[in-house]
Amino acid sequence: MTSQVRGAQLARLLGQWHALPGRRRSPDYAALAGTVRGLLADGRLPLGVRLPAERELAEALRISRTTVTAAYRQLRESGHLASRRGAGSWTMLPGTHRVASTGLWTPLDDRDMIDLGVAALAAPPELMPAARAAAEDLPRYLGGAGYHPTGIIELREAVAAKYTARGLPTSPDQIMVTSGTQHALDLVLRLALAPGGSVLVESPTYPNALAALAARRARITTHGLATDAAGWDADLLLGSLRQGRPKLAYLIPEFQNPTGHLMPAELRERMVGVAHAAGTDLVIDESFVDLPLDGTELPPPVATFDRHSRVISIGGMSKPYWGGLRIGWVRASAPQVQRLAAARVGVDMASPVLDQLVAVHLLADASAIVDARRTQLAAQREALTDALARRLPDWRVTVPRGGVTLWVELDGPISSALARAADEVGVRLAPGPRFGLDGTLERFLRLPFTLPAADLVEAVGRLAAVRYDLDRAGRPSWQEPAVIA
Predict the structure, then answer these.
(1) Where in the sequence of the chain do the CATH 1.10.10.10 domains occur?
(2) Which end of the chain is more exposed for a tag (fewer CB within 10 A), N or C?
(3) Which CATH entry fits the domain spanning 145-364: 3.40.250.10, 3.60.21.10, 3.30.1490.20, 3.40.640.10?
(4) GO MF terms on file (predicted)?
Protein backbone atom coordinates (compact mmCIF):
# COMPACT_ATOMS: atom_id res chain seq x y z
CA MET A 1 0.00 0.00 0.00
CA THR A 2 1.29 3.46 -0.91
CA SER A 3 2.16 5.55 2.16
CA GLN A 4 0.87 9.08 2.47
CA VAL A 5 2.32 12.31 3.84
CA ARG A 6 -0.17 14.67 5.46
CA GLY A 7 -0.33 18.38 4.80
CA ALA A 8 1.17 19.38 8.15
CA GLN A 9 3.99 16.85 7.70
CA LEU A 10 4.89 18.10 4.24
CA ALA A 11 4.72 21.68 5.46
CA ARG A 12 7.34 20.87 8.10
CA LEU A 13 9.57 19.26 5.48
CA LEU A 14 9.21 22.23 3.17
CA GLY A 15 10.33 24.63 5.89
CA GLN A 16 11.09 28.14 4.65
CA TRP A 17 10.46 27.26 1.02
CA HIS A 18 9.41 30.81 0.22
CA ALA A 19 12.76 32.24 1.39
CA LEU A 20 15.17 30.13 -0.68
CA PRO A 21 17.98 31.62 -2.85
CA GLY A 22 16.62 33.02 -6.09
CA ARG A 23 13.11 33.20 -4.62
CA ARG A 24 12.45 36.77 -5.73
CA ARG A 25 12.86 35.70 -9.35
CA SER A 26 10.36 32.83 -9.09
CA PRO A 27 6.59 32.80 -8.63
CA ASP A 28 5.22 31.05 -5.56
CA TYR A 29 4.16 27.90 -7.39
CA ALA A 30 7.63 27.46 -9.00
CA ALA A 31 9.39 27.91 -5.65
CA LEU A 32 7.06 25.37 -4.04
CA ALA A 33 7.56 22.83 -6.83
CA GLY A 34 11.33 23.34 -6.73
CA THR A 35 11.44 22.74 -3.01
CA VAL A 36 9.49 19.49 -3.36
CA ARG A 37 12.02 18.39 -5.98
CA GLY A 38 14.77 19.27 -3.52
CA LEU A 39 13.19 17.08 -0.86
CA LEU A 40 13.13 14.22 -3.35
CA ALA A 41 16.75 14.92 -4.31
CA ASP A 42 18.20 14.51 -0.84
CA GLY A 43 15.91 11.66 0.21
CA ARG A 44 13.83 13.50 2.80
CA LEU A 45 10.68 12.86 0.75
CA PRO A 46 10.59 9.21 -0.43
CA LEU A 47 9.48 7.98 -3.83
CA GLY A 48 6.03 6.48 -4.17
CA VAL A 49 4.54 8.61 -1.38
CA ARG A 50 1.09 10.09 -1.90
CA LEU A 51 1.11 13.83 -1.39
CA PRO A 52 -1.68 15.65 0.45
CA ALA A 53 -4.67 16.92 -1.47
CA GLU A 54 -4.26 20.42 -2.89
CA ARG A 55 -6.71 21.98 -0.43
CA GLU A 56 -5.07 20.27 2.56
CA LEU A 57 -1.58 21.45 1.61
CA ALA A 58 -2.83 24.95 0.88
CA GLU A 59 -4.34 25.15 4.37
CA ALA A 60 -1.17 23.78 5.98
CA LEU A 61 1.02 26.32 4.15
CA ARG A 62 -1.55 29.14 4.45
CA ILE A 63 -1.42 29.87 0.74
CA SER A 64 -3.99 29.76 -2.02
CA ARG A 65 -5.12 26.47 -3.47
CA THR A 66 -4.36 27.91 -6.92
CA THR A 67 -0.65 28.08 -6.00
CA VAL A 68 -0.60 24.44 -4.92
CA THR A 69 -2.48 23.38 -8.05
CA ALA A 70 0.07 25.13 -10.25
CA ALA A 71 2.97 23.61 -8.29
CA TYR A 72 1.56 20.09 -8.64
CA ARG A 73 1.06 20.70 -12.35
CA GLN A 74 4.70 21.74 -12.75
CA LEU A 75 5.83 18.63 -10.85
CA ARG A 76 3.74 16.45 -13.17
CA GLU A 77 5.24 18.16 -16.21
CA SER A 78 8.80 17.58 -14.98
CA GLY A 79 8.08 13.92 -14.24
CA HIS A 80 8.24 14.12 -10.45
CA LEU A 81 4.56 13.59 -9.71
CA ALA A 82 1.96 11.19 -11.05
CA SER A 83 -1.74 11.90 -10.56
CA ARG A 84 -4.91 9.93 -11.15
CA ARG A 85 -8.37 11.34 -10.65
CA GLY A 86 -9.88 10.00 -7.47
CA ALA A 87 -6.60 8.35 -6.37
CA GLY A 88 -4.41 11.35 -5.62
CA SER A 89 -0.83 12.27 -6.55
CA TRP A 90 2.35 10.44 -5.64
CA THR A 91 6.04 11.14 -6.00
CA MET A 92 8.22 9.63 -8.74
CA LEU A 93 11.28 10.37 -10.87
CA PRO A 94 11.59 11.34 -14.54
CA GLY A 95 11.55 8.29 -16.78
CA THR A 96 15.09 8.68 -18.15
CA HIS A 97 16.69 8.99 -14.73
CA ARG A 98 17.67 6.59 -11.98
CA VAL A 99 18.31 6.92 -8.29
CA ALA A 100 22.03 7.06 -7.48
CA SER A 101 23.76 6.03 -4.27
CA THR A 102 23.39 9.59 -3.03
CA GLY A 103 19.62 9.48 -3.40
CA LEU A 104 19.82 11.91 -6.30
CA TRP A 105 18.49 11.08 -9.73
CA THR A 106 21.00 11.13 -12.54
CA PRO A 107 20.97 10.46 -16.30
CA LEU A 108 21.42 6.82 -17.16
CA ASP A 109 24.39 7.70 -19.39
CA ASP A 110 26.87 9.16 -16.88
CA ARG A 111 30.26 8.02 -18.13
CA ASP A 112 31.80 11.41 -17.35
CA MET A 113 30.42 11.45 -13.81
CA ILE A 114 32.92 11.94 -10.97
CA ASP A 115 31.27 10.02 -8.15
CA LEU A 116 31.98 11.59 -4.75
CA GLY A 117 28.94 9.93 -3.24
CA VAL A 118 30.75 6.64 -2.52
CA ALA A 119 33.62 6.61 -0.03
CA ALA A 120 35.44 3.52 -1.27
CA LEU A 121 38.64 2.71 -3.13
CA ALA A 122 39.09 0.74 -6.31
CA ALA A 123 40.42 -2.79 -5.92
CA PRO A 124 44.13 -3.22 -5.09
CA PRO A 125 46.40 -5.00 -7.60
CA GLU A 126 46.78 -7.87 -5.13
CA LEU A 127 43.14 -8.85 -5.57
CA MET A 128 43.62 -10.89 -8.75
CA PRO A 129 46.48 -13.04 -7.37
CA ALA A 130 44.42 -13.58 -4.22
CA ALA A 131 41.43 -14.67 -6.31
CA ARG A 132 43.56 -17.15 -8.27
CA ALA A 133 45.03 -18.59 -5.07
CA ALA A 134 41.53 -18.85 -3.59
CA ALA A 135 40.32 -20.79 -6.63
CA GLU A 136 43.18 -23.25 -6.11
CA ASP A 137 42.13 -23.69 -2.46
CA LEU A 138 38.46 -24.18 -3.28
CA PRO A 139 38.49 -27.93 -4.18
CA ARG A 140 39.06 -29.00 -0.57
CA TYR A 141 35.70 -27.42 0.32
CA LEU A 142 33.72 -28.89 -2.56
CA GLY A 143 33.07 -32.21 -0.82
CA GLY A 144 30.87 -30.52 1.78
CA ALA A 145 27.60 -28.63 1.59
CA GLY A 146 29.36 -25.25 1.61
CA TYR A 147 27.31 -23.75 4.44
CA HIS A 148 29.40 -22.20 7.20
CA PRO A 149 27.07 -19.90 9.18
CA THR A 150 29.87 -18.42 11.29
CA GLY A 151 32.44 -18.50 8.46
CA ILE A 152 35.25 -20.82 7.41
CA ILE A 153 37.79 -21.46 10.14
CA GLU A 154 40.76 -19.99 8.22
CA LEU A 155 39.08 -16.60 7.93
CA ARG A 156 37.83 -16.56 11.50
CA GLU A 157 41.35 -17.33 12.68
CA ALA A 158 42.77 -14.52 10.54
CA VAL A 159 40.25 -11.97 11.82
CA ALA A 160 40.74 -13.09 15.42
CA ALA A 161 44.49 -12.64 14.97
CA LYS A 162 43.90 -9.05 13.83
CA TYR A 163 42.10 -8.25 17.07
CA THR A 164 44.73 -9.99 19.16
CA ALA A 165 47.45 -7.96 17.43
CA ARG A 166 45.58 -4.79 18.46
CA GLY A 167 45.78 -5.83 22.11
CA LEU A 168 42.37 -7.51 22.33
CA PRO A 169 42.81 -11.27 22.78
CA THR A 170 40.23 -12.98 20.58
CA SER A 171 39.47 -16.58 19.66
CA PRO A 172 37.91 -17.75 16.37
CA ASP A 173 34.77 -18.70 18.33
CA GLN A 174 34.23 -14.97 18.96
CA ILE A 175 34.17 -14.17 15.23
CA MET A 176 31.28 -14.49 12.80
CA VAL A 177 31.91 -13.81 9.11
CA THR A 178 29.18 -11.84 7.32
CA SER A 179 28.48 -10.56 3.83
CA GLY A 180 29.87 -7.09 4.52
CA THR A 181 29.76 -4.70 7.46
CA GLN A 182 26.22 -3.59 6.68
CA HIS A 183 25.09 -7.21 6.87
CA ALA A 184 26.90 -7.53 10.20
CA LEU A 185 24.97 -4.52 11.54
CA ASP A 186 21.67 -5.89 10.29
CA LEU A 187 22.23 -9.24 12.01
CA VAL A 188 23.21 -7.57 15.28
CA LEU A 189 20.07 -5.45 15.17
CA ARG A 190 17.93 -8.53 14.52
CA LEU A 191 19.41 -10.19 17.59
CA ALA A 192 19.72 -7.29 20.02
CA LEU A 193 16.99 -4.80 19.14
CA ALA A 194 13.26 -5.45 19.28
CA PRO A 195 11.13 -3.42 16.85
CA GLY A 196 10.63 0.02 18.30
CA GLY A 197 13.65 -0.25 20.59
CA SER A 198 15.64 2.85 21.52
CA VAL A 199 19.01 3.54 19.89
CA LEU A 200 21.55 6.33 20.34
CA VAL A 201 23.58 7.37 17.29
CA GLU A 202 26.02 10.12 16.48
CA SER A 203 24.97 13.06 14.35
CA PRO A 204 26.09 13.07 11.63
CA THR A 205 26.42 9.34 11.04
CA TYR A 206 26.50 6.69 8.31
CA PRO A 207 23.26 6.88 6.24
CA ASN A 208 22.99 3.14 5.68
CA ALA A 209 23.12 2.55 9.42
CA LEU A 210 20.15 4.91 9.77
CA ALA A 211 18.38 2.90 7.07
CA ALA A 212 19.02 -0.34 8.96
CA LEU A 213 17.66 1.21 12.16
CA ALA A 214 14.61 2.52 10.33
CA ALA A 215 13.93 -1.00 9.06
CA ARG A 216 13.75 -2.10 12.71
CA ARG A 217 11.45 0.85 13.47
CA ALA A 218 13.97 1.99 16.07
CA ARG A 219 13.37 5.06 18.21
CA ILE A 220 16.52 7.04 17.44
CA THR A 221 18.11 9.75 19.55
CA THR A 222 21.29 11.55 18.54
CA HIS A 223 24.50 12.86 20.04
CA GLY A 224 25.74 15.82 18.02
CA LEU A 225 29.43 15.78 17.11
CA ALA A 226 31.51 18.95 17.20
CA THR A 227 32.72 20.28 13.85
CA ASP A 228 36.29 20.73 15.09
CA ALA A 229 38.82 18.04 15.93
CA ALA A 230 37.29 17.44 19.38
CA GLY A 231 34.42 15.39 17.99
CA TRP A 232 32.52 13.88 20.92
CA ASP A 233 31.54 15.99 23.92
CA ALA A 234 32.19 13.48 26.69
CA ASP A 235 29.71 14.93 29.18
CA LEU A 236 26.92 15.10 26.63
CA LEU A 237 27.56 11.61 25.26
CA LEU A 238 27.75 9.98 28.68
CA GLY A 239 24.76 12.01 29.85
CA SER A 240 22.74 10.75 26.90
CA LEU A 241 23.54 7.18 27.89
CA ARG A 242 22.70 7.73 31.56
CA GLN A 243 19.48 9.64 31.01
CA GLY A 244 18.11 7.95 27.90
CA ARG A 245 19.23 4.42 28.81
CA PRO A 246 18.92 3.28 25.17
CA LYS A 247 18.87 -0.41 24.37
CA LEU A 248 21.69 0.08 21.85
CA ALA A 249 24.20 2.75 20.90
CA TYR A 250 25.74 2.66 17.41
CA LEU A 251 29.09 4.47 17.27
CA ILE A 252 32.05 4.82 14.89
CA PRO A 253 35.03 5.67 17.11
CA GLU A 254 37.78 5.18 14.50
CA PHE A 255 37.73 7.98 11.92
CA GLN A 256 34.02 8.46 12.22
CA ASN A 257 31.97 8.47 9.03
CA PRO A 258 31.57 11.22 7.85
CA THR A 259 33.55 13.52 10.18
CA GLY A 260 36.81 11.56 10.45
CA HIS A 261 36.99 12.04 14.24
CA LEU A 262 39.01 9.61 16.39
CA MET A 263 37.62 8.89 19.88
CA PRO A 264 40.25 9.15 22.65
CA ALA A 265 41.03 6.19 24.88
CA GLU A 266 39.75 7.84 28.07
CA LEU A 267 36.29 8.39 26.60
CA ARG A 268 36.18 4.82 25.29
CA GLU A 269 36.78 3.46 28.78
CA ARG A 270 34.27 5.76 30.45
CA MET A 271 31.67 5.04 27.77
CA VAL A 272 31.83 1.28 28.31
CA GLY A 273 31.38 1.70 32.06
CA VAL A 274 28.42 4.05 31.70
CA ALA A 275 26.84 1.79 29.05
CA HIS A 276 27.00 -1.17 31.42
CA ALA A 277 25.39 0.83 34.22
CA ALA A 278 22.65 2.04 31.84
CA GLY A 279 21.96 -1.42 30.42
CA THR A 280 23.05 -0.32 26.94
CA ASP A 281 24.80 -2.54 24.41
CA LEU A 282 27.43 -0.78 22.28
CA VAL A 283 27.64 -1.61 18.58
CA ILE A 284 31.07 -0.37 17.50
CA ASP A 285 31.64 0.06 13.76
CA GLU A 286 35.35 -0.37 12.99
CA SER A 287 35.13 0.00 9.21
CA PHE A 288 38.04 2.46 9.06
CA VAL A 289 40.30 1.08 11.79
CA ASP A 290 42.93 -0.04 9.27
CA LEU A 291 43.36 3.42 7.79
CA PRO A 292 45.20 5.75 10.19
CA LEU A 293 47.26 8.33 8.29
CA ASP A 294 50.28 10.46 9.19
CA GLY A 295 51.55 7.84 11.64
CA THR A 296 48.53 8.29 13.91
CA GLU A 297 48.59 5.88 16.84
CA LEU A 298 45.25 4.24 17.50
CA PRO A 299 43.70 4.00 20.97
CA PRO A 300 42.81 0.51 22.25
CA PRO A 301 39.67 -1.07 20.76
CA VAL A 302 36.51 -0.16 22.65
CA ALA A 303 35.99 -3.84 23.47
CA THR A 304 39.26 -3.80 25.43
CA PHE A 305 37.40 -2.11 28.27
CA ASP A 306 34.41 -4.48 28.17
CA ARG A 307 33.98 -6.89 31.08
CA HIS A 308 30.30 -7.70 30.70
CA SER A 309 29.80 -8.56 26.99
CA ARG A 310 28.29 -5.13 26.34
CA VAL A 311 30.42 -4.38 23.25
CA ILE A 312 29.76 -5.90 19.84
CA SER A 313 32.35 -4.89 17.24
CA ILE A 314 31.70 -5.00 13.50
CA GLY A 315 34.11 -4.49 10.62
CA GLY A 316 34.97 -5.65 7.15
CA MET A 317 37.08 -5.58 4.00
CA SER A 318 35.25 -2.83 2.07
CA LYS A 319 37.28 0.24 3.05
CA PRO A 320 40.88 -1.01 3.23
CA TYR A 321 40.48 -3.56 0.43
CA TRP A 322 37.49 -3.46 -1.96
CA GLY A 323 33.77 -2.90 -1.66
CA GLY A 324 33.05 -5.60 -4.22
CA LEU A 325 34.46 -8.21 -1.85
CA ARG A 326 31.45 -8.62 0.43
CA ILE A 327 33.24 -9.80 3.53
CA GLY A 328 32.52 -8.44 6.99
CA TRP A 329 32.51 -9.76 10.52
CA VAL A 330 31.18 -9.49 14.04
CA ARG A 331 33.37 -9.81 17.13
CA ALA A 332 31.39 -10.66 20.26
CA SER A 333 31.32 -13.25 23.01
CA ALA A 334 31.16 -16.87 21.83
CA PRO A 335 27.54 -17.32 23.02
CA GLN A 336 26.51 -14.15 21.20
CA VAL A 337 28.14 -15.43 18.02
CA GLN A 338 26.16 -18.65 18.27
CA ARG A 339 22.93 -16.71 18.72
CA LEU A 340 23.82 -14.57 15.69
CA ALA A 341 24.41 -17.73 13.64
CA ALA A 342 21.00 -19.04 14.66
CA ALA A 343 19.39 -15.74 13.62
CA ARG A 344 21.32 -15.73 10.37
CA VAL A 345 19.97 -18.94 8.90
CA GLY A 346 16.66 -17.23 8.32
CA VAL A 347 18.39 -14.61 6.16
CA ASP A 348 21.20 -16.02 4.00
CA MET A 349 22.64 -19.19 5.62
CA ALA A 350 26.32 -18.30 5.06
CA SER A 351 28.82 -16.13 3.15
CA PRO A 352 30.29 -17.46 -0.13
CA VAL A 353 33.24 -19.79 0.49
CA LEU A 354 35.23 -18.49 -2.48
CA ASP A 355 34.97 -14.87 -1.30
CA GLN A 356 36.11 -15.94 2.17
CA LEU A 357 39.14 -17.68 0.70
CA VAL A 358 40.03 -14.52 -1.23
CA ALA A 359 39.81 -12.59 2.04
CA VAL A 360 42.15 -15.08 3.74
CA HIS A 361 44.83 -14.47 1.11
CA LEU A 362 44.40 -10.68 1.24
CA LEU A 363 44.69 -10.64 5.02
CA ALA A 364 47.86 -12.73 4.77
CA ASP A 365 49.36 -9.86 2.74
CA ALA A 366 47.63 -7.15 4.78
CA SER A 367 50.73 -5.22 5.81
CA ALA A 368 51.86 -4.47 2.25
CA ILE A 369 48.36 -3.84 0.91
CA VAL A 370 47.19 -1.55 3.70
CA ASP A 371 50.47 0.39 3.83
CA ALA A 372 50.08 1.14 0.13
CA ARG A 373 46.46 2.19 0.69
CA ARG A 374 47.51 4.60 3.44
CA THR A 375 50.16 6.19 1.23
CA GLN A 376 47.64 6.51 -1.58
CA LEU A 377 44.98 8.03 0.66
CA ALA A 378 47.37 10.52 2.25
CA ALA A 379 48.39 11.83 -1.18
CA GLN A 380 44.77 12.05 -2.36
CA ARG A 381 43.70 13.77 0.85
CA GLU A 382 46.42 16.39 0.31
CA ALA A 383 45.35 16.92 -3.29
CA LEU A 384 41.73 17.41 -2.23
CA THR A 385 42.46 19.78 0.66
CA ASP A 386 44.86 21.84 -1.47
CA ALA A 387 42.28 22.14 -4.25
CA LEU A 388 39.60 23.22 -1.76
CA ALA A 389 41.93 25.82 -0.23
CA ARG A 390 42.66 27.31 -3.67
CA ARG A 391 39.24 27.17 -5.28
CA LEU A 392 36.82 27.34 -2.33
CA PRO A 393 38.69 29.14 0.47
CA ASP A 394 35.50 30.03 2.36
CA TRP A 395 34.80 26.35 3.06
CA ARG A 396 36.13 25.09 6.40
CA VAL A 397 37.91 21.74 6.56
CA THR A 398 39.24 19.91 9.62
CA VAL A 399 41.76 17.48 8.17
CA PRO A 400 41.18 13.99 9.63
CA ARG A 401 44.04 11.83 10.85
CA GLY A 402 42.71 8.80 9.04
CA GLY A 403 39.76 7.30 7.21
CA VAL A 404 38.68 8.31 3.73
CA THR A 405 36.44 11.40 4.05
CA LEU A 406 36.44 15.12 4.71
CA TRP A 407 33.45 16.67 6.49
CA VAL A 408 33.38 20.14 4.97
CA GLU A 409 31.56 23.11 6.48
CA LEU A 410 30.20 25.16 3.60
CA ASP A 411 29.77 28.92 3.42
CA GLY A 412 26.01 28.65 3.70
CA PRO A 413 23.11 26.17 4.07
CA ILE A 414 23.43 25.08 0.45
CA SER A 415 24.41 21.40 0.56
CA SER A 416 21.36 19.97 -1.21
CA ALA A 417 21.20 22.80 -3.74
CA LEU A 418 24.89 22.35 -4.46
CA ALA A 419 24.44 18.60 -4.94
CA ARG A 420 21.68 19.20 -7.48
CA ALA A 421 23.75 21.78 -9.36
CA ALA A 422 26.89 19.63 -9.25
CA ASP A 423 25.01 16.72 -10.78
CA GLU A 424 24.40 18.86 -13.85
CA VAL A 425 28.16 19.28 -14.36
CA GLY A 426 29.08 15.66 -13.75
CA VAL A 427 29.90 15.52 -10.04
CA ARG A 428 27.84 13.28 -7.77
CA LEU A 429 27.70 14.37 -4.14
CA ALA A 430 26.24 13.10 -0.88
CA PRO A 431 24.73 16.25 0.72
CA GLY A 432 24.89 16.82 4.45
CA PRO A 433 21.22 16.07 5.26
CA ARG A 434 21.68 12.45 4.18
CA PHE A 435 23.90 11.93 7.24
CA GLY A 436 21.23 13.04 9.72
CA LEU A 437 17.66 12.37 10.71
CA ASP A 438 15.76 15.59 10.34
CA GLY A 439 16.85 17.41 7.20
CA THR A 440 19.43 19.53 8.99
CA LEU A 441 23.19 19.58 8.22
CA GLU A 442 22.64 21.74 5.13
CA ARG A 443 25.87 23.59 5.93
CA PHE A 444 27.92 20.41 5.52
CA LEU A 445 29.12 18.14 2.75
CA ARG A 446 31.01 14.84 2.84
CA LEU A 447 33.86 14.64 0.33
CA PRO A 448 35.74 11.32 0.12
CA PHE A 449 39.36 11.30 -1.05
CA THR A 450 39.18 7.81 -2.53
CA LEU A 451 39.42 8.81 -6.21
CA PRO A 452 42.66 9.60 -8.09
CA ALA A 453 44.09 13.03 -7.33
CA ALA A 454 43.39 14.34 -10.84
CA ASP A 455 39.71 13.46 -10.51
CA LEU A 456 39.49 15.15 -7.12
CA VAL A 457 41.06 18.36 -8.43
CA GLU A 458 38.74 18.33 -11.44
CA ALA A 459 35.73 17.78 -9.20
CA VAL A 460 36.64 20.72 -6.98
CA GLY A 461 36.98 22.92 -10.06
CA ARG A 462 33.48 21.99 -11.17
CA LEU A 463 32.13 22.54 -7.65
CA ALA A 464 33.70 25.98 -7.51
CA ALA A 465 32.01 26.93 -10.76
CA VAL A 466 28.54 25.83 -9.70
CA ARG A 467 28.97 27.27 -6.20
CA TYR A 468 29.39 30.76 -7.57
CA ASP A 469 26.57 30.19 -10.05
CA LEU A 470 24.23 29.46 -7.12
CA ASP A 471 24.62 33.07 -6.00
CA ARG A 472 23.91 34.51 -9.43
CA ALA A 473 21.23 32.26 -10.89
CA GLY A 474 17.76 31.18 -9.91
CA ARG A 475 16.85 27.63 -9.06
CA PRO A 476 17.81 25.12 -11.77
CA SER A 477 15.19 23.95 -14.20
CA TRP A 478 14.37 20.26 -14.03
CA GLN A 479 14.21 18.64 -17.42
CA GLU A 480 15.13 15.45 -19.13
CA PRO A 481 18.58 15.42 -20.81
CA ALA A 482 18.61 16.24 -24.50
CA VAL A 483 19.35 13.41 -26.92
CA ILE A 484 22.29 14.18 -29.23
CA ALA A 485 22.85 11.81 -32.15
Answers:
(1) 7-91
(2) C
(3) 3.40.640.10
(4) DNA binding; DNA-binding transcription factor activity; pyridoxal phosphate binding; transaminase activity
Q: What are phi and psi of 394, to 5 degrees?
A: -80, -10
Which amino acid is it at 435? F
- Domain 100-123+368-472 belongs to what topology? Aspartate Aminotransferase, domain 1 (3.90.1150)
Q: What pTM was computed for the model?
A: 0.77
- Within 24-152, residue ranges assigned H as helices are 28-41, 54-61, 65-77, 127-137
Give ranges for CATH 3.40.640.10 in the chain.
Answer: 145-364
Would you give per-residue pLDDT tens digits along the chain (485 residues)? 347 888 888 988 888 777 655 445 678 898 899 889 888 766 678 777 889 999 999 999 999 999 999 999 999 988 888 887 777 888 887 764 544 444 444 444 455 789 999 999 999 999 999 999 999 999 999 999 999 999 999 999 999 999 999 999 999 999 999 999 999 999 999 999 999 999 999 999 999 999 999 999 999 999 888 777 779 999 989 999 999 999 999 999 999 999 999 999 999 999 999 999 999 999 999 999 999 999 999 999 999 999 999 999 999 999 999 999 999 999 999 999 999 999 998 888 899 999 999 999 999 999 999 999 999 999 999 999 999 999 999 999 999 999 999 999 999 999 999 999 998 889 999 999 999 987 789 999 999 999 999 999 999 999 999 998 887 655 444 444 433 33
Q: Is 88 exposed, middle or buried (0-12, 13-18, 19+ CB in 10 A)?
A: middle
CATH code, residues 7-91:
1.10.10.10
439 phi, psi to nearest 5 deg: 80, 5
Residues 315/285, Cβ–Cβ less than 8 Å: yes
| Integer-rounded Cα radius of gyration of the chain | 24
- Assess contact for 225 and 202: CB atoms under 8 A: yes
What letter represents residue 234's amino acid?
A
